[in-house]
Amino acid sequence: MEISRRSFLKFCGMGTVGAVSAGLLAGCGSSTTSTSSGSSSGTSGTVANKDKPLVWYNRQPSNSSTGDLDTNALHFNDDTYYVGFDATQGAEAQGQMIKDYIEKNIATLDRNGDGTIGYVLAIGDVGHNDSIARTRGVRKILGTAVEQDGKVISDPIGTNTDGSSSSVQDATLEINGKNYTIRELASQEMKNSAGATWDAATAGNAIGTWASSFGDQIDLIISNNDGMGMSIFNAWSKDNKVPTFGYDANNDAVAAIPEGYAGTISQHADVQAYLTLRLLRNALDSADISLGISTADDAGNVLEDDTYTYNEDERSYYATNVPVTSDNYQDFSDSTKIYEGASKQLDSSKSPTKKVWLDIYNAADNFLSSTYQPLLQKYDDLLNLDVDYIGGDGQTESNITNRLGNPSEYDAYAINMVKTDNASSYTSLLSQ
Ligand code: BGC
Q1: What range does the domain containing 17 cover?
Q2: 255 alpha carbon to ligand 1 midpoint, in Å?
């Protein structure tokens, strides 16, 4: 008989699970915090790895071509969740922020005065649903989107000097009684030769090529994230005073707003990093999953309703995105500041130290390394979690899975895949 860790602990505590084998009943007496490694952290000797809490984060298990969610991975066991952000809402917020900027600044935006507002687009990863959503959101709101089979095309177009691309279209925007054309002049996936995506250095090089082909036809730079956006800003657009938009609200990007970086989106990394570890904590404590999230815990930690949504079928928590522009950037000056409402230490007698294995798919990813990981490191102390941080190379899954050699040493796992299709590379290790 299969019985999940949580039902098992609940059964041992109060008995609601129905018929249970003698072997499992015998297991009720043994300690779930006995350690196999001899460390001071509790590691569970009685729970199978496949039944331990698992949070996927930042890269949602899904088919990288169709975007369909990988429901097996999201329902791996009763304590499996995904934590990310609302990609569609964020993408449309990015598109709207850019459209508002165009309307407000049209008098100075059209650098060569040809009536066409040209933009170039840096794409992060053609198989990553956040990247796909951002490309779609921007094209949809600016009016340059073309649909195929009911979906906005999110492919990079290469170059589109004369507006004849079939994957995007020229849009018309009427501002102050005058019609302007909005054109996606070029877009490219920023992948380096070793295969790393969202690659900032590649974006910094691409702008050199684009600037020499398009010159002052480029009126705007749009990037799927700040890592690439800032690389372009530093290499070219700051000097050329071309407004540049990114995503993530990393510290360096927010600090560049008064120097001309035009805007970014906060994906509420403070809330996401908290949720990533909090869900593990709750499952490890056999607590209600919403404790410290929608309902306050004993220490008073709780999130405000408008900072996230939960989709039960998808087992996914999605943080809300907020535009950051010259109007409000001062409120976002420290992206590694933890969420104030969830900043209180848990009592270690009720939530004893547990060991967590957590990987970051690419140790060089700007957002994950400069924003997300510092936040995780603050929350792990507050939540009494002893986390091993594993940094990947951003290219191969095996670089990371090789370092999950002994999953039994850990009480819970938080996984950030290189490729969203690869959940089974991890779940197969946990199922052995
Ligand atoms: C972030 C990107 C990051 C990517 C990595 C996205 O959600 O916005 O900046 O590179 O995740 O998976």
Answers
A1: 1-30
A2: 19
